[in-house]
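Narrative summary of target 7.
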Amino acid sequence: MLALSAVALSLAAGPAGAADIIATALSPDPVSSGIAMNARGENVAAFEAPVGDGFAVFVRSRARAGGPWGPRTRISRVTERRPDRILVAVDERGRAMVIWRRVLAASGADLQSALRATATGAWRNAGEISSQPISGGAFSSPVLAFAGGRATFAWGEVSSAGWQVRRAIYDLDTPTARYWSFEEPQVLGVQPALAVDSQGDVVAIGPAAALGSGIGGDPSAPVVVTSRAAGGADWEAPVTLDPVGSQATIAIADGGQTVAAWRRGAPAAGIAIATRAGLAEAWAPAETLAAAGFLPVAAVGPTAQALVAYGVNLDTLDPPDPDLVFPPSDLTYPLGNVLRARRRAPTGAWGGEETVFAFVDDMRPTYREAREVRPAVDPFGTTLLAWSSTVAGFSAPWATAAPAAAPFPPATKYPTVDGIGQVALAPSGRGEAALMWVSERGGAFGSLNLWSDRVPAASCAAPPQSPPPATADTITLSAVQLRINQRIYAAALRRADALDGWLRARIATRDLCGGGIAASSLGAGVEIGPAPAPRTIPVATPRALAIRPAADKSGVAFTLSVDQLRINQRIASAALRRANALSARLDAGLSGGDIRAGAVSADRIGATIAAIRVSATAPPAATRTVIAPAAEKTGVVFTLSAAQLRINQRIGQAAIRRLNEVRGRLLDGISGDELRRATVTGANLTP
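Modeled conformation, tokenized:
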């Protein structure tokens, strides 16, 4: 069997469905996990795993959704009981924070944290958050935001007076503040739902009543909301949004825009919402968003683009829903639940109700609801939803994403084996997200896998689907294998040159993700304002690579020799140096100098902003691919051996993996995370 085949040249970009297993636990118990992504697409995942007779929290990182994960690192002490409620955040510079609940044997639980102070630095203990153990471990709705070196964490816990909301702040940029600071709590008396923004603002809403039947719960109290600004001296007085309600949820953006949603009680019914434009603004009167529904979730973006999703029980629908294949009036049709959503444009108008998900479980006489629904809105107005639902008797993860002005496409089902534990969703600033979930391991009863994948949005091109590289069972040292390897290394070298040529030809309009240029990327000669109206967001259709054909070597004699092995290594190493140089160029960020004059049309700018005045300005210089010189090999002894062949193959495979990632970063659409701040100038915009 050949150790390396031409299939390895597929250079796949990591499409949805090509999931990574990032952890395995030999235990039937649920695995707590979390994932975060910043605007450049960098991921940090945290999870608990066994260590000897105990458990600890681990992290893994990667430079981009769809790219390779780095090694796992333990960031906590080993404890007798499983840590849980893991939260992760990563800021615009790649600094990261992880928080988890440590369950104590006798005195409840406390809250621990770990910090990575630089994008590539080591993790360190960031200290306890709770000043004393949480009584009985009662703990609700933890939320975390981390930006600009400031981490804000909020949670609910039980006190003698009832449920209370607490906030703690960690300021990394203040040299003397290497600890969490605490504030006096706000007592609500009911279990709260919370949200926090990266500025440190916190909002809390209640009640969140017990669910009872699984589709509701008995409303028993007014829906009240309170907040505390980042620099505020105290919590605001609670505001009553509805006399009676349950299942409350809340979301806040960095600008203070807030959306609250809840399930209404009698005599009203359905899903209600209330909004406000900022923490200093008054709440708008509550309004009914849907006539029927339960378990609402909400998200809001920095430009006030908002999303509310909720379940609907089919037996409440009259007349029958035309979106569903079988009408509820059909006696063979099982009654159950579907997932619906409504979205609000930045102008303040809510769109129509959309059926996001409705799937028949062939193994059970019921419609299976979407569970653990995770909503998100990114800075471009991309709306994302992820959830789990039963398929053929087993749970599976699903997700969908759409630009602000486009309908949700059919949901993508992600691969899993024998059930799912949790779903985590993290949006970036490029119209995609990272998804993480837990499943049982096939063929290994009572053990779990932790998976991760990307959720692409319609504004960027769908990554090319390609088969995975062939894997070797044995390595055969022969002249035939040397010839095959050299062809593969040379093809990788030509592809690296083609990727560099793609960039040298400069980025065209079609290469840019629709709505992908954020305000932060726009610089001299561009004055921006709010978009006058929602607009259609086009899909990127990037240019193909122009790869030069292979040279004809039919007359070249390949010999099984040390010299031929050395030639092969030089070609593989050249491909790897070029791949590393391309990756480093993208990591440093492209500039407006890499974009053609006039290529940035209005529909390539973020969906919620518009260029209201453009003046002619010279673009900055284009970036360059700086290739490291070949290392000196004096004194190195090459041997004619399978071991040397394996070394060469590892170099070639590393080059192919890096080229996979570079190709994916270019050919699924260029977005804001690939561009340096303020480098897209008036010269780049379409006149």
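The two ends are 58 Å apart (CA to CA).
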